[in-house]
Amino acid sequence: MSQKPAAGRISFRMETALRSNSPGTTLLAKYQHSKIRPRRAVKVAVSPSASAPVTLAPRYEVPRDINPLLSPYTLGEFELSHRVVLAPLTRCRAIGTVPQKNAAEYYAQRTSKGGLLISEATCVAVTGHGYPNTPGVYTEEQINAWKPVTQAVRDAGGIFFLQLWHCGRSSHPEYQPNGADPISASAVAISKGTVTTPSGDAYPFPVPRALEISEIPGVVKSYADGARNSLAAGFHGVEIHGANGYLIDQFLKSNANKRTDKYGGSIPNRCRFALEVAAAVADAVGPELTGIRLSPYSEFQEATDPETLDLNLYLVDKLSEMGLLYVHAVEARISGGFEVEGSSESLDPLRKAFKGCFMVAGGYTRETGIHAIESGHADLVAYGREFISNPDLPLRFARPDAPLNPYNRDTFYTPDQVVGYLDYPFLKDVSPEAAQLAA
Ligand SMILES: Cc1cc2nc3c(=O)[nH]c(=O)nc-3n(C[C@H](O)[C@H](O)[C@H](O)COP(=O)(O)O)c2cc1C
What is the CATH number of the domain that holds 387? Predict the structure, then answer.
């Protein structure tokens, strides 16, 4: 089911650059040992290549109590009809940082009545971008463009959380105002892989600029503003992206955070930025509408820490005290969007330490998801790659033998507004019998 990279650990960045249709393929080879090229102005992203008409998704309810994954769950004020969550998935289709019309149909296709969806990572500030065509939630235009998307999910009966994102050092001057260096906890660059610029070129990661202590409150505030804007755009709540080596993870993990002030060094100091963001967001929209994603064991984008278990136990304890709605933890076997060999650390200590809802993600199948709920490992299970290719995934999980469409990595991150986005078939189209029996 899940595809593995050909050899060992391979990064999402690397994978993006190695796509055969990516201009980064040649540039990667050309520039991998060179210095960063001279700065240029940010270019407007490429246009979508397809504008085929799109059929509206069939609205459906997932049959209840067929198995533990499809049993109801009360998430704070939300009555979920099942436990199969749409994981946050960057799709690189938000041209010029603005969600496009077809995003409404993309999310509606993946909505079931009472189902929980988490949006693609969405930047809280202009300095937060690090991938082409990723959306923001910090301008009027972006907020207005999200409204039909959230309305489509609401119309289909879904609960929709926006993932609040800042890439930090995982960016390039081409994304930054006035070609400035990206910001981070410390001036430590990601040493391997490449960053793809808005124009589609691939470069080595630049050395970021360490945030001045006086600047940190402004960055914290941008997450709170993003949370407020998300609710104004019609989202039900927000998930803070504290995972996968982005800005918050750059403060948490000691190999990216070399600070000697109150934001670096000890575990409480390295957790300070994450906790300030969580407190500011919770203050802005309420802790009962705030979740957070963490990837304690992921080494994605070189964010690692020998003390990660102790650090995360400290962190979730404080998040419990704040009354955050959920912790969404990525399993050790996952690095970004890939499974990796040899990582088997358990999330159970964090599950026990956190008082609210515990969601897990990473490499789950129908069967392992059922086991995760049955065994008490988690309350909710988020699915990424399989949900991209199976818009009605929860419905398919009603039957052990319902076929799953394979996903196509080549179309994960293209700007095409239809291909790999809206064109994966529904169960009723590939197996009317299974759809009939499931419903
Ligand atoms: C195409 C793609 C985009 C992703 N984008 C995000 C993202 O925006 N935010 C995030 O936290 N994780 C992101 N991830 C990681 C997924 O949320 C998920 O943790 C990972 O795919 C493992 O789950 P899976 O085995 O069910 O696919 C992405 C993964 C893929 C494959």
Answer: 3.20.20.70
